[in-house]
Design brief:
- The radius of gyration is 15 Å and the shape is globular.
- The chain has 116 residues and is an alpha+beta fold.
- β4 and β5 (71-74) form a beta hairpin.
- The chain has a seven-stranded mixed beta sheet.
- The protein has one domain (4-93).
- Helix content is 28%, strand content 28%.
Length: 116
């Protein structure tokens, strides 16, 4: 079973491709066939994100996101056998107004839930 340190090392080894078609949501991705450590390790990383991540809302849809080394990582939530990619985006600092607009204000979101 993968731990935080192993996850961080694993994702650092990958070749991330910029998602050119998502200009409003700049992020990178890697597909399972290009995962340098093989499909089994890819599935371990997916499981780690899903087991240890927090729920974040994006376009009114919940995603399980794990944060490490200034990036957040997520999948699209498909069953493991059809999951083919892991995404990552930089964690950007935000202003107090942006923070309050994201649902962090009282009554705006559930405990442990964040919005992009």
């Amino acid at each position: 079973m993968m731990d935080h340190s192993e996850f961080a090392q694993t994702v650092d080894r990958q070749s991330w491709r910029f998602a050119k078609t998502a200009k409003r949501n700049p992020h990178w991705y890697v597909v399972d066939k290009n995962w340098r450590d093989g499909r089994e390790n890819f599935e371990e990383a997916v499981s780690f994100i899903r087991q240890h991540g927090l729920i974040e809302m994006f376009w009114r849809r919940p995603y399980t996101v794990y944060r490490v080394h200034g990036f957040k990582y997520w999948t699209m939530g498909d069953p493991m056998e059809t999951t083919i990619l892991i995404n990552r985006a930089r964690i950007a600092p935000c202003t107090e107004d942006q923070f309050n607009d994201t649902g962090h204000n009282p009554g705006g979101s559930r405990e442990g839930e964040f919005r992009w």
